[in-house]
Amino acid sequence: MSAELMGKRLELLRDIVPGLSRVAVLSQTANPGNAEYLRQAELAAAALGLRLQPIAVHSAADFDRYGSPLMSTRRAAPLLL
């Protein structure tokens, strides 16, 4: 998925999650291309009135550690990069 579509992804997420104000962005730091995705996400979130919560992950275990609690408590809607 191209970085240019990040805004549309956030817009769709906002439309399907009533009252959404914060989005957790889980980003694999080993992938250098994810920096651009995160930059696009920050720009799009600001335009949509959303707050991003970037979370750096280094392994699949990190996705389980950070992703599962976010999804179960709905503290923030997760967006994976």
Feature tags:
single chain, 81 residues, alpha/beta, Rossmann fold, three-stranded parallel β-sheet, 3 helices, 3 strands, globular
Structural class comes to: alpha/beta
Give the N-to-C terminal Cα separation.
9 Å
What string gives the helices and strands in order? HEHEHE
Multimeric organization: single chain
Notes on the structure:
By secondary structure, the chain is α/β, with parallel strands linked by helices. Helix content is 49%, strand content 22%. It has a three-stranded parallel sheet with strand order 2-1-3, with helices on both faces. The radius of gyration is 12 Å and the shape is globular. The chain starts with 5 loop residues before the first helix and ends with a strand.
Q: Topology of this protein?
A:
Elements (H helix, E strand, L loop, with lengths): L5 H11 L5 E7 L5 H15 L2 E7 L2 H14 L3 E4 L1
Parallel strand pairs: 1-2, 1-3
Summed up:
This protein has helices at residues 6-16, 34-48, 60-73, and strands spanning 22-28, 51-57, 77-80. The protein is α/β, with parallel strands linked by helices and 81 residues long. The chain has one domain: 3-Layer(aba) Sandwich (Rossmann fold), CATH 3.40.50.2300.
